[in-house]
Amino acid sequence: MSAASADMRALTLRELLAACFSVGRHAGHVIRDVVKQGGDLGMVNKADDKYDPQTVADRRSQQRIVHALRNVWPHVQIVGEEGELAQPEPEDVVTADLSVLQNAEFAIPAELEGELDAAHLVLWIDPLDGTKKFAEKKYDEVSVLIGIAYKQRPIAGVMHLPFIGKHGTTYWGGRGIGLFKSVHGDLNDPLQTIHERQERPQTRYPASRTMILTTSGTKCDLVNDAINELKPQQIQLGGATGTMVLSVITGESDLFLRFRNATKRWDICAMEPLLEAIGGSLVDKKGRVYAYDPLGDPAFDNEHGLIVSLDAATTSHVLDIMTKIELLRTFDGNKMTPAWISHHVFQDASSVVACDVVPKSIHLGKHSSVMKLRVETTEPTTTTLFVKRYVKNELPPRSETHWRRDLFSYRTEARFYSHFYEKLRHEVQLIKPLEVLFGKDAHGNEATDRFMVFLESVDEINDTSRKYVHVDCLGVEDAKSALTYLAKLHGAALKQPELVHQAAENLWPSGGWWSYAKRGRQELENAPSVWMSVLRSFASELGDAGSKASLVDLGERMVQHAAYISSELFEKSPTSLQTIVHGDFKSANLFFENASHEAVAFDWQWCGVGIGALDVAYLLNTSVSMDALANDEEHLLRFYYDQFIHQVQRGEGIEYSFEAFKRHYELATLEYARVLISNFWKNMTPSSCAAKAANTNCGLGYRSVPHVLRMIRKLDEGLRVVEDERVSNEAQA
């Protein structure tokens, strides 16, 4: 926290809130004066591409606010809707009264007591919210909004309504402060102002009435779609964002929706704390709060819309509906209608009469949005589709480096189903893609950030014998079923050299999400520090072994040999062994048929070129039980090898001994272990493993203590073999 200089007043929330209260009223007073004076409003349009008016009242209001606040705290950043304006005329030079709230009883949250750091504080000002309504003389929708944001989140707000009451009315407060309504008397006598603490309204949806919804009168297809789903009893049309949010705060409406990209941070910064003061919330259409960062978002747009409610259950319900609406849209924003599905998914072979999302089937992940779609046709039949949607602007933000890697992975899965399914499905069981859609750029070329895959939903089949189930922590028989699947996949591709060549060009040239080429160089430097933390956290589990020099140096040893391990697996492995690998072949990405327990894989976004041992090592080290590994690891390796050799000998055959395969398996185990010791073991403890035990998407090597200890042993032993191998190679060179 930075201390104020000797000639600068300390910045405290109590005084800052009082100052904003005071200058908000001064701003409202000049707005009333402009109306009383009549005549020309001095209106200009601020935008070239839309109607965005500004009047003399907007300008004079902001000049009063900014000048008064900077006179007290010149070092505080202020972002006003009207930008930087000239200094005010003498009649608009006003003083902020820091004692104006002395008769109001309120507390400041403990974490915000004392002096605030001005470097982390921004004031967001809308000097006249509802300018269009003001020009239309609908004065009851006009307000002055002053929001106080600290560390990019709003902590307090002031909303002054100049035309409500004889001398105006102000709502103010914040979380931990409370919500207050102040009815003003004469401007020159603050003691005439009556402050009343406001409670959360009792009469509201769904406890005591059907829904009353407020929205802007501006046409918006997305709002109309939401209304069709919500079926509110009453719709109230407003114009100014502030007063529409206020309708929720006062209980006049239960929900406010606005999805057009027409509001800015200054429209909501004052209102969000007032909502939070009585337990409400303001989120975007994905349930996220907005950050108030003038440097990180210089446009200040609330681009993902506004959902405002006092009830968490109402907000959650609306978010579910908005997710469904958005997922049922095509890349160009149109609805995914039955006619559209008939044409694009079934190629007009079936006439779809109805479609709807299966309840509770939507999952919004980091990498994709998925849902199940129940489709009814004229036959009549009902089919369930599994829809996987990758659209960059619908997914969580990340660094450009991560976007490049992840977008390529999304395109990989789309290309696998569109280009490789037909060439592999006769040899290995694959989930049938009904359609794969690629977005188009402005020139009609395949876009790199929008893909959608429609698959059969295999776990919705009515035939009990053909139902598919998930299995976690595989025993020997299920592991054999999965290994049989891999042998068929690897053998089928290996017998089609041209297909492997196409995979190198269209899928990942080095398969596997964990490959050194994708993430090794960036993460590897973390290995020594991550490993030392593991040694400390698992000291009792490792016992005396934890003090062995080879174990103490495990992180440095991995750094030293990681590039060699990867090179032996990818660059130096024989071309005759190059095939298509799944790249994320773990139990979470497998279904097992109920009767036969035959496996079928999904989630192909990391598939590409590599040797089969990569998939085998990943499966065994992430998904197979300790009993099976302790007693049958060699047996399972021999089982896969025999199955694989049988598959390829049906073609031209290859020269590949079991010993050579086993060496590749041990190297592939180290290749995967590299991401554990450099990333996934970060902050790992026995307790964290227990907490993740039921998370089947996590590999067993960081959610099961026995598997962790096994991986440590495999790392130590495997690296020792690599070290001996490299010494021998150098001696022979």
Automatic annotation (TrEMBL):
SUPFAM superfamilies: Carbohydrate phosphatase, Protein kinase-like (PK-like). Residues 464-650 form the CHK kinase-like domain. Mg(2+) binds at residues 81, 126, 128-129, 267. It comes from the Eukaryota. Keywords: Hydrolase, Magnesium, Metal-binding. One of its GO terms (cellular component) is cytoplasm. Its cofactor is Mg(2+). GO terms for molecular function: 3'(2'),5'-bisphosphate nucleotidase activity; metal ion binding. InterPro entries: CHK_kinase-like, CysQ/Inositol_MonoPase, EcKL, Inositol_monophosphatase-like, Kinase-like_dom_sf. Belongs to the inositol monophosphatase superfamily. This is 3'(2'),5'-bisphosphate nucleotidase. It comes from Globisporangium ultimum (strain ATCC 200006 / CBS 805.95 / DAOM BR144). The lineage of its organism: Eukaryota, Sar, Stramenopiles, Oomycota, Peronosporomycetes.
